Amino acid sequence: RIFIIVENLKKSNNLGPILRCAAGFAVTQLIKVGYDKCNTEGSHGAAKHVPQISFPTLEQAVAYVKTACNCPKVIGLLCGAAAGAFSKRGYHTTRIEQRGLLRVGSPCTTTVEQTTAEQPLSFPVHSNQFGNKESNICLLISKNPNGLPLHLAEWCDLYVHVPQVPIIAQEGDDQPTLLDVASCLSITLHHMTQWAGYHERIFQGQKFEVAQGVQRGRLPTSFQPTLEGLRQDLDQTSLRGTTTVDDTIDEDFGSKFFCEDESAGDY
Length: 267
Fold this sequence. Notes:
By secondary structure, the protein is of the alpha/beta class. The protein has helices at about 15-25, 60-65, 110-115, 150-155, 180-195, 225-235; strands at about 1-10, 30-35, 50-55, 75-80, 90-95, 100-105, 120-125, 135-140, 150, 160-165, 205, 205-210, 215-220, 255-260.
C-alpha cells in the first residue's frame, strides 16, 4: 500500500493534479496536514477515487502512518534534480537556508560515503530505494517543484528524486527544474507501483474500470480515535479503487472520514 502526506494550509489550495496522480496509481490514502477542504480543479473526478484523511499537525500525520498504516519509513520527494542526478549510489542533500528548501546535492562516490552520511541520502527513483516490498510506503510531498521545505524534510527517513537533463545552462543552486510536482509524483508512483508489482486496471470500452463510488461522512470533532479503530477503518476503505471525498469536504480541522455506498462520476 502507498500513502501520501501533503500539506494543505488553506482551503483554496488546489490538490486536483495530485489527486488525479494518486487515483491513477491506486494510492491507498491521501493524508492532508491542515484543512480538510481543498480545491480539486484538474482532478477530473479522480478526487472521488482517493480515500482521504486530515490531521492538524505533521507530527500527528507521521505518527498515524507509522502506527496505524504500518509504514516503517517516510520517504521525502525532492522532485526534480536539474543536475542530472542518475547515479544509483545516491546523493547527499543540500540545505538552501535562504529559500527554506532541501535539494539534491553532491553524489556519493563510495560505499563508505553512503553508510557514513550524516543526513539521509536521496536516490533517483529508478533505483527503487523504497524499502521492503512487504512493507507499506509513505511518500511525503510538497507543491514546491524546487525541493522539499525544511520543516517537512526533517520528518523524512530518506529521499527520492526524479533526475532530469538540464537544457538551460546555469551555475549554482538556482538551476531550474523542468518538471512540476504532479509530473514528478507520477514518475515516482510509476516506479513504486512497478517495483511493488501492482496490476494495471482493466478497460471497459475506452475507459479504465473504476470501483463504485462511496459517500463521505464525518465523525464529531470530539472523537478520539484508537489505534485499533484506525486500522480497522483503514482496512475497510483502502482497497484499490475505493473512493471518498471531493471538493465539498467540510472545513473542520482533523476530521476523520468513513465510507458508504454511492455512485460517483467517472473521469
